Amino acid sequence: MGLEDKIPEGILTTSLEGLVNWSRQNSTWPLLFGLACCAIEMIAVGTARHDIARYGSELFRASPRQADLMIVSGRVSNKMGPIIKRIHDQMLEPKWVIAMGICASAGGPFNNYAIIQGVDKVVPVDVYVPGCPPRPEALLYALDKLREKQKSETFAQYREAEQRAIRTSADIDALAAPRSKQLA
Amino acid sequence: MDWLNLLIIPLARSVALILVLLTAFAYLTWFERKLLGRFHVRYGPNRAGPKGLLQPVADAVKAIFKEEFIPDHVDKPIYVLGPALALIPALVIWAVIPIAKNVPAIADVNIGFLWILAVAGVESYGLILAGWSSNNNYSLLGALRSSAQMISYELPMGMFLVSILMLAGSFSLVELLNSGRAWWEWLWLWAMFPLFFICILAETNRSPFDLPETENELVAGYQTEYGGIKFSLFMMAEYINMITTSAIMATLFFGGWRLPFGLLQNVQILGPFVLAFKVILLLFLFVWVRASVGRPRYDQLMGFTWKILLPISIGYMMITSILVVLFK
Description:
The complex is a heterodimer. By secondary structure, chain A is mainly α. Chain A is built from seven helices and three strands; from the N terminus they run H-H-E-H-E-H-E-H-H-H. Chain A has a single domain (26-134, 154-179), classed as Rossmann fold, CATH 3.40.50. In chain A, helix 4 links the parallel strand 2 and strand 3. The two termini of chain A are 28 Å apart. By secondary structure, chain B is an all-alpha fold. Chain B folds into two domains: 1-65; 66-327, no CATH class. Helices cover 70% and strands 2% of the residues of chain B. Chain B has eleven helices and two strands, in the order H-H-H-E-E-H-H-H-H-H-H-H-H. Chain B has a two-stranded antiparallel sheet. In chain B, strand 1 (98-100) and strand 2 form a beta hairpin. In chain B, helix 1 (2-39) packs across helix 2 and helix 5 packs antiparallel against helix 7. Chains A and B meet through helix 1 of A and helix 2 of B.
């Protein structure tokens, strides 16, 4: 992760942890990135009626280097899987993922050769949002859940989860449906 | 006590100025996000602190605690130099801006106008070095766009500055505010203000001329490879540029620290507040434009400056010189 790796853990750093977690909670910038119809609802979440800006998350950054949150909004095809993995790798720690809609969560109606059955086979997911597509309110609820997680998670817990979540391209190859070499 | 006047006082003033500007930058982001929210009939940030007032703090702490990362494929020294080189000129321009009667922010340089133009010229280096050293197609294209745009718009801006200079008769900004203007001079300058403001928008890479960072074509332009605190430095450069250029416009067009009709002009303490008020009004104008105007195509942007703005500015300069000869 970032600067906190260089600080010793212990009682002294708990209030620092609180401050950092608070700042992450209130400044989670999502990645400007949409896959399918759920992206339309993700756009709607920024409009006047739903206003994701209240949480300080209206800054959808196009560059993965500046984003904190990846909202996988839609079905993930086998061709898209490696690309999502790559974008996720390009994001700087700490980073979070919301799987938006049933397709991104578990494949949904597309139980076929072309669609990865859930984006959690490619990147570690923090919050799953059901719905086809979920309403903007559901996405805001997911953001609320993510904020709860960001608030309670200690640095050590985040690091441990990060270690477990590391996936190599070999893992992905084993999980994903067979595909030709040129797609890898 | 020469060293006191030469070293300690300017140093203390610079530190104070930098602190004020950095705070102003932080709350300018809040101001902009809140105002954009109001323009869109929504609330804007309101979870971090009362009325979202702690939003800049949250953003800053998050940026500091983001992973410190330099990609392998970049030219490291220049990659690190880029954000700093973008930020420093924006701060340095402030040295010559008068903040009260006979009080410049740091030094009353007798070439104040040239100082502004020269330092503004250095600014584009930060962006182009950042784009070049990132070794990324999008970064390079964004950097080329921004430097071409800034240099093109510097020409009409320079012409307009020359016109103001001829009317003022002095290179010093302090002198400019001390010598009064006739009523026709005010009107003549205000007629040109919208065009000057367009140049300033392009100079600061602000919407609607934020083509260097068009998300749909260039990801994030010259800052694509930057994350965490280095990206924040670019944001800082952009927003402090807004503040600086607003202060320049307030000084050139709206009397800087002066109240209208020479009211209370001997009360020194009022100066900074009057200037700050004018700067805030002009910053509102920046946000207003961002909330209402769409982005032009790049060829339209360049065509506008070379085919329309530059001839107008040259014509304006010629007419001004005739007016100066006839009436001053």
